[in-house]
Amino acid sequence: MAASSDPELAWWAGAALADLEAREKAGEAWTEPLRVTLEARERGAAEVLRDLLALSRPSPPAIDLIEEDRPLTVTFRDAPYFQALDEVCSQAGVTLTPGPGGRLQVMRADPLRGPRQYRAGFAVSPVQLLRRTDVTFKEDPESQLNLQLLLRADPRMRILDSDGDCVLLRAEDDTGRSLLKPGAKPAVRIRAGEGTANVQLILGVQDPRARRIELLRGTISLTLARKTGEIVFGDLAKGAPQERESSGVKAALKKIERTNDEIRAEVELSAKERVPWPDTENLTLEDAEGRPFQRWGSSMSASSTGASYRLTFRDRDGLGEARKVRISVVTETYPRRVYFELKGIVLR
Amino acid sequence: MRTLLAALVLCVQDDAKIAEWIRDLGDDAIEVRERAMVDLVRIGRRAEGALRQAMNGGGEVRGRAAQVLAEIARGEGARIFEPAPGRITLRKTDVPLREALEEMQKQAGCKLSHSFAPDDEKVTVVFENTPLFEAVDALCRSARNTSYSIDCRRDDVTVTISEGKFADAPRVFRDQYFVRLDGLSLTTLYDLQGGEASKTRLDFRWGWEKGTRPQQALLRIEELVDDLGNSYLADLLDPGARPVGFAYVMTQQPIEWPKVPPPGASKFAKIRGSLDLSFPVSLLVFPFDKPEESSGALRKEEGASVKLASCARDRSRLRAKIEVRPADLAGRLEMKAVDKEGRDYPGRYTRGDQGDGESMLMSVEFTLPATSEVASLRFTSPSGARERRIPFEFKDVKFR
To answer: Are B147 and B166 in contact (CB under 8 A)?
Structure first.
């Protein structure tokens, strides 16, 4: 069917095949897309959001509520995770944005309108649309539409910071004009730590009579973690350097020191073969019960043979003594192609 | 010997004439008084001593002598701060671009840098006393795939010729100045939270030849209409106050407003305005010889003063504290340390504190070779203002 002469059939068959391939390549790392069944009556938005986030991972990020909370009522039955999250945010009139220390900030804001696709553990939605005309006096004036899409991945998947790719297959306005612009290559910027990718599309301008982008269809290629290994440094009280090795990756805890409620750590990783270096989010500091300290600042520099990290944690929750530094290292990866289709992006 | 004698005779004749014109300043006939003023201004600085003596007198002569002195100072200022433009005279037929550029470089008062001038690129040029920038523009326009840029930073001006399509931008050249509309953009943000926001932006750039840097440049738009007759003048966002100061003058300015022309419009029918330049009339100089031994010294010029509170050397750094009066003089001061060989080293502010309300206390620092011996510190400030207006009118600027 993917080779069918019917483009619609071929498209959807291609999407289904991509899911099957992903399942096969992911092996043990495969997780069914997260779905939500939840009923909340007159409950605070922050409370409902906390419940939803708790479904997504064992240690959900803390939420900072910026504005006054307001009660809401929602019912989800086997709904895609991001659809439930967006619905709660929309009803509460808030948006979630990453804040300092890995926390999520709940900001009072009108939710973004526009179409969304929730499929196979991913959410794709437009976040910005700009029409731009530039005159340089070297060529005739040139106009284009710049459309930015946001891809969010199921929090249980681990997107890697490797190069992403996007292929736009169809883009049409509601007058039937194709908006595909020859030679315009989409740019994909992956934010592994947030589990998102920003896709910047350059489109041709719409017909003057057009009121919306009727159809936008394409694929986004990502690299996901298939197998991970853990490196754990314990016995931190002495503050002495330590070395460990796991799955071909050598790790050295060069330094760990505490000043009041601030703990600083320096870690170096090296490997003979090229491996995707973990993001700073994948280095955690825990207390004796495995509760994470809040990450307060981090920097990372990497080459093909090694990576070094400087991390600052804060004990804002009164956890006490830091016991373990845990590093999650990716040892195997697999490619994932995400098919997306958005309809009815309003142009005025 | 004969030349010296002739010069002496001329001087004596001038002195006699100057004395006569100064007497004429008090003549009963207004035509005689006006004529004498014109003659005195024309002879300039040579009449200054006699005019200052005439200021000790009274009545009509005193008043007119003061006017003549001010006019002479303005003329001197024009010569110092706005010298005559560089002119290119060149006639070449079918010569390599490189050769034409090298000939122009000999006549230009600034650096002509070319990263692109292949020998097989031939040009024909006929420049007769043509202002430099206009000549560069004509040269690049006639050559194939050749563009240029003009960079005016502080006192240095560099014209760079490079490979690339020539931008036929709306532009005017007036003597040693140019004003150009470098580009424009129309943007509409379709807000996915509802509504939309639009913006039009015109990017203007201007410049001047070496030695002609003004103390202030301000772009004014007086008329801005599209081909449907819509005027945007009332929509222009206030570009804000332009930085004033002799050390840095703006050479570009975006003109923006929060809307785009309607779909039926395809060009700006007219963009009219002016680049308003302001030049100093004179330069106030506050010199301190042997600064490390001159703490407490005070220099005064035209109601302004600089006091050297302290000055100390630490290897390659010379640090000084000065008190300037009035306080706004601080923003206009340029500072140099001059060594015994006459080399100068620019200084920079490191700290400024309000003084007694009318003065400013400034910490300044000069970096210079550890072996150099500092002969003096020189603080200078432009004084007065003489305006020059460069009008422009661009028609039929297409945007769709």
So the answer is: yes
Residue A91, domain extent: 31-111
Residue B364 lies in a domain: yes
Residue B81's alpha-carbon distances to A290, B85, B287, B377, B396, in angstroms, are 73, 12, 20, 22, 35
Is residue A198 predicted with pLDDT exceeding 80?
yes
- Peptide bond between residue B287 and the one before it cis (omega within 30 degrees of 0): no
CATH number at A242 reads 2.60.40
Residues across chain A: 348
pLDDT tens by residue, B181-198: 999 999 999 877 667 789
Mutate to test the interface with A, among B145, B186, B190, B395 (most CBs of A within 10 A): B190
Nearest to B263 among A112, A134, A208 (CB): A208
- CB contacts under 8 A, B 155-214 vs A, are 164-170, 181, 183-190, 192-194, 196
Supply the ipTM of this predicted assembly.
Answer: 0.75
Residue in this structure with the two tokens 């807000």, named with its chain if needed: B191
DSSP codes joined into one string, B66-110 = HHHHHHHHHHHHHHHHSPPPPEEEEEEEEEEHHHHHHHHHHH-SS
Tell me if A137 and B169 make a contact (CB, 8 A cut-off). Answer: yes
Residue of A nearest to B141 (CA): A138
CATH code for the domain of B157: 3.55.50.60
Q: Which domain holds residue B137?
A: 84-168
Please give the tally of structural domains in chain B: 4
Determine the residue of chain A that is closest to B202 in CA distance. A135
Q: 3-class SS at B63?
A: helix
